[in-house]
Amino acid sequence: MASMIPFEIPYSDLHTFTGILTAKNLNVQGLRRIHVCNLIQRLLQHYKFHTTEHLFQSLNTNPDLIQTCREMLCVSTGEFFRDASLWIQLKNIFKKIAVQPNMNILFARTSTGEELYSLLIFLQEMDLLKKTKVHATEICNNVLQQVKRAVYSIKTIENTQKIYQELGLSKSLLEYFDISGSTATLKPYLTENCTFFIQDIHSAVPDFQVQYDLIWYRNQLIYWDKPTANQYLTEFSSVLKSGGYFISGYTENLDIYPAISNFETISFEDKIYRKK
Q1: What is the model's pTM?
Q2: CATH number of the domain within which 211 lies
Q3: How far apart are CA 267 and CA 274, in angstroms?
Q4: Distance CA 93, CA 245 (A)
Q5: What is the total count of domains within the chain?
Q6: Residue 51 sits in which domain range?
Q7: What is the pLDDT of residues 259-276, one digit of tens each?
Q8: DSSP labels for 169-230?
Q9: d(Cα 86, Cα 227) in Å, to the nearest integer?
């Protein structure tokens, strides 16, 4: 979800906007006010509407606008192997989990895919990929289809190579991609045990009837008000194995949520938590 400085929008307009989206099966109740204002502003600019009334009329009649809302609600930035210290911590975590015969990972909200594919490459480097099942979710089918294509610019990957090498991983990062011109496509074998799903924006956990060893949900809780974020954290706890790990984002402070009592902090700096 891209950010900008939102202008002030009356509560009556916010109420109308969220009501329209809810009626169109896009429930954003609980999204922090600043992010709802941001979404309205982006829609006004994107479609060159001069008034919120014009926007609301179009939302009621044009399904393309609802689809655009879904796309705008997806976090639109990602990096390969972002935050090197996190991956150093993950090495130790996966060594502990590796004693199990198999692993289940929930990667909730893929964004543009770079962190998901960093994780799959990391598991391959640790010889754990074949024993790991990954469920990857996003709220917008268009965004998820783009993620599944797994096509990135070579320059983006080359810019990550230094961090990748600092982690002590064996191959060149580009060896995990098929190169064509200025683009690189992730090699298909890396996603053989990764299943992609569309999830409801207002449910943190898809109903897969699975207990996970690790849940990845970075830089998402900050978009929700405290009660909603706490609800999500509670849901994640309910499907995480005892001793399982929850990975949050650098900008998020989980200590403000009552549901954090279900977890112990492994690394506050890297936002790694373990279920008690």
Answers
A1: 0.93
A2: 3.40.50.150
A3: 10
A4: 8
A5: 2
A6: 11-72
A7: 999 999 999 999 999 999
A8: -SS-GGGGEEEETTEEEE-GGGGTTEEEEE--TT-SS------EEEEE--S-GGGB-HHHHH
A9: 27
